[in-house]
């Protein structure tokens, strides 16, 4: 297991840069002003770079700025200091190449599954094209919900609703998928099922994924690297390479290396003091 504090830009044998990182945080800080006028420093000096089609999980104590990182990458927030870049271009607004899956499905109860999946197109452009409906049906096939296209959200289980939310985030086939604890409200068995489902979808349609979670097991199962954040103000304390072979399956969970890594990360997260 190796750890680094930041990932440098890849360099070819000739000495020339290969390409800019897909997502690049450079000296990023974020401060919020509370309702009582006090200032809360959520992030401080974050340096983090992600490669194309890499799956990176972010873990750390509550309030360390994990969700803030996602909102900055999505262009929903502008950093108080430093820069956030996507494909080498500073982020100044939400971008089309990004899909966002939230902690809860946030499906509209009066719309059926297909209309929920295609709703972002209606919201953004005022209409839904036939190609959008076709793509939505293809995604339903991918997530195993082909027969539920015309069901309402209250007719679906929690896991099925979360599948629909992920399909909605994937509708425009984004290069980047940001996921903010998308399985945290699910029971343990459904959560494991959704983790394997996400692995399958990611293998079939590769994306650069940033996945926020409090589950060390979930982070290990899914990720190429795990970013460990310090307590607020959140900083990148360590970046851990996950040496587990892909594809991963149920047998991965019983791999001695998996268990060893989980124990080591648990110690890092729960014994780390604010820096």
From TrEMBL:
<keyword id="KW-0067">ATP-binding</keyword>
<keyword id="KW-1003">Cell membrane</keyword>
<protein>
    <submittedName>
        <fullName>ABC transporter ATP-binding protein</fullName>
    </submittedName>
</protein>
<dbReference type="InterPro" id="IPR027417">
    <property type="entry name" value="P-loop_NTPase"/>
</dbReference>
<comment type="similarity">
    <text>Belongs to the ABC transporter superfamily.</text>
</comment>
<keyword id="KW-0547">Nucleotide-binding</keyword>
<feature type="domain" description="ABC transporter">
    <location>
        <begin position="23"/>
        <end position="256"/>
    </location>
</feature>
<dbReference type="InterPro" id="IPR003439">
    <property type="entry name" value="ABC_transporter-like_ATP-bd"/>
</dbReference>
<dbReference type="GO" id="GO:0005524">
    <property type="term" value="F:ATP binding"/>
</dbReference>
<dbReference type="InterPro" id="IPR003593">
    <property type="entry name" value="AAA+_ATPase"/>
</dbReference>
<dbReference type="InterPro" id="IPR050166">
    <property type="entry name" value="ABC_transporter_ATP-bind"/>
</dbReference>
<keyword id="KW-0813">Transport</keyword>
<keyword id="KW-0472">Membrane</keyword>
<dbReference type="Pfam" id="PF00005">
    <property type="entry name" value="ABC_tran"/>
</dbReference>
<dbReference type="InterPro" id="IPR017871">
    <property type="entry name" value="ABC_transporter-like_CS"/>
</dbReference>
